[in-house]
Amino acid sequence: MAVSQVRLSADATPVAKAWTRIRTNLRESAGARLFEQWLKPIALIDSDDGEHIRLSLPTAFAANWVRSHYADRLVHEFRAVLPGVRSVTIETATQRVEPVVLTAASAVTAQGAPAPVVTLAAVAERPALEPRYVFDRFVVDSSNKVAFHAAKAVAAPGPVRFSPLFLHSGTGQGKTHLMHAIAHAFLDAEPNARVLYMSAERFMFEFVSALRVRDTHAFKARLRSADLLLIDDLQFIAGKDSTQEEFFHTVNEIIGAGKRLVISADRCPQALEGIDPRIVGRMAMGLVADIKAPGLELRRAILERKLGDLSDVTVPADVLEMLAARIHTNIRELEGALNRVAAYAQLTGDAIDLDFAVATLGDMLRGGQKRVTIDEIQKRVSAHFELKPLDLVSARRARAVARPRQIAMYLAKRLTTRSLPEIGRKFGGRDHSTVIHAVRRIEELRDSDREIDAAVRVLMRDLEG
Question: Which of 62, 170, 381, 447 has the lowest CB atom count within 10 Å?
Fold first, then answer.
């Protein structure tokens, strides 16, 4: 018969006695229906090792369910009775064996041979972390330096310097990257540590699920046994009173036990609406670090780092400059734009240049583009070349005026949605063919004249950001 029940002999081991007590606790907390269906079939596999507990279930499906819902609870229960327990393995018995008699000796079958139990790998819960999100790949500048160093301090082994660490920023600016990096670094330093990472929304879902099956004990035990707990996007539990109550007590337990807690949100604690003031107070007691919107230099550096990950792709500097200038609020969108340009080029076989990038990204660029007017272009160009704005719309044809006028027309074509005739009218009523000539001439000069190219770059940067 399959391993399913425990028979105690007179000289039963401490682990077997503990298991009998734990089964009674599980029956009381889980309720008769859930216990009979999922927990009663669990069998203890006898072993001389009191640190590593092995449990068995008759089917892989049942084993997976218990791992998902009760792995942490089982560890907590065993440690409450036997503090020396280090792990609990949930296995699948795939061969028919005799019942296990739990004594100090090894388990044996009726024939005297060791009971053959074929197992799946032991399951030690680990968060699903993005491999790319590590500290070495986080590009640092003044906008995120405090958050970066605080994250490294939390991940470092040894005494906890502060808890909680509260990270806040707008969407796509690096909070999640830092949280994954903290988990990676902490697990590298402490491989046996218990690390839990979840969104606040997931926290709420699991808590509500535990309420429905009347088993909040397992949920609480799982979270509060973590050595490092990371909760992302705290704002999603705003207005959820019962969830916030449980969250507050979890936070207290983690901090009170001297463990590490990292929370993120889209704004600072005091600006979170619908969040219990007690939670806000707890968050403010730790270290609050914000991540500001990335500046132009940081956006350039991020694109260069990302480009290093793209094999066999050549992206000209002016395309990177354009992406960094136009997509300025969200790092994810910035990286996504580069990925899209590279993918389209590989699919079509076209070389990447400014025109290709603009045509490929279309609405993405327009959505992130600052609205630039022709009047603003004329003012910036005339100031750069020390002219009067009226000079650009005059009939003067001297090179000192004509070349800046052509640059202004080129920028108007690049940075606005105005038609060629409209641009011509804004430059003293000139014909659209004059605008076409100006655009082509500046494109040629940018390839051959470094001063013209540098001037255009400076003006584009000033106008776009």
Answer: 447
